[in-house]
Amino acid sequence: MIQQIFLGFIGLCSGVIIAGGITGLLIGLSIVPRYAGITHTADHILLYEDITLLGTVLGNLFYLFEWKLPLGTPFLILYGLFSGIFLGGWIMALAEMADVFPIFTRRIRLQRGLSFIIICVALGKSLGSLLYYFNRWSA
């Protein structure tokens, strides 16, 4: 019994640490401040950072304890839309911070069609994700 409590405590602490690391990465990559700047709500930046941390901690708890929210298909569609926007913003901010696209295009001497390549990469990732979940490969 003590061993299970200890393992549960270690698991919960690890989840909180990982959530903190993810939140730190999001803030370090300036994703949250950039969204606040785009929406002209920079005076609420501390609230956004707190909500980001709360979301990552709750996400870990929902995953760990397998809690269910019986809110139906409309909520699932809304969740998928917002998750996709969030992930897309995160990927683009990471790519921008790493200067992946400018370095890559200079190396291969790409002059035109970069927007087409980015759209194809995004469509490929989207179709791959849909195929992954449609075939239930996650279970």
Helix/sheet category: mainly alpha
* SSE topology string: HHHHHH
Task: Give the N-terminus to C-terminus distance in angstroms.
Answer: 29 Å
Low-confidence stretches: none
In DSSP terms, counting alpha (H) and pi (I) runs of 4 or more, how many helices?
A: 6
Radius of gyration, Cα only, in angstroms? 19 Å
Profile the largest sheet. Answer: none
Write down the oligomeric state.
single chain
Portion in beta strands:
under 5%
Q: Which percent range fits the helix content? A: over 70%
Average pLDDT taken over every residue? 80
Q: How many E strands?
A: 0
What is the strand and helix layout of this fold?
Layout lengths: L1 H27 L2 H8 L6 H21 L6 H27 L1 H8 L6 H21 L5
Helix pairs in contact: 1-3
How would you describe this structure to a colleague?
The chain has 139 residues and is an all-alpha fold. 81% of the residues lie in helices and 0% in strands. The protein has 6 helices and no strands. Helix 1 packs antiparallel against helix 3. 3% of the residues are buried.
Top keywords for this entry?
139 residues; 6 helices; mainly alpha; globular; 0% strand
Summarize the structure.
By secondary structure, the protein is mainly alpha-helical. The protein has helices at residues 2-28, 31-38, 45-65, 72-98, 100-107, 114-134. The radius of gyration is 19 Å and the shape is globular.
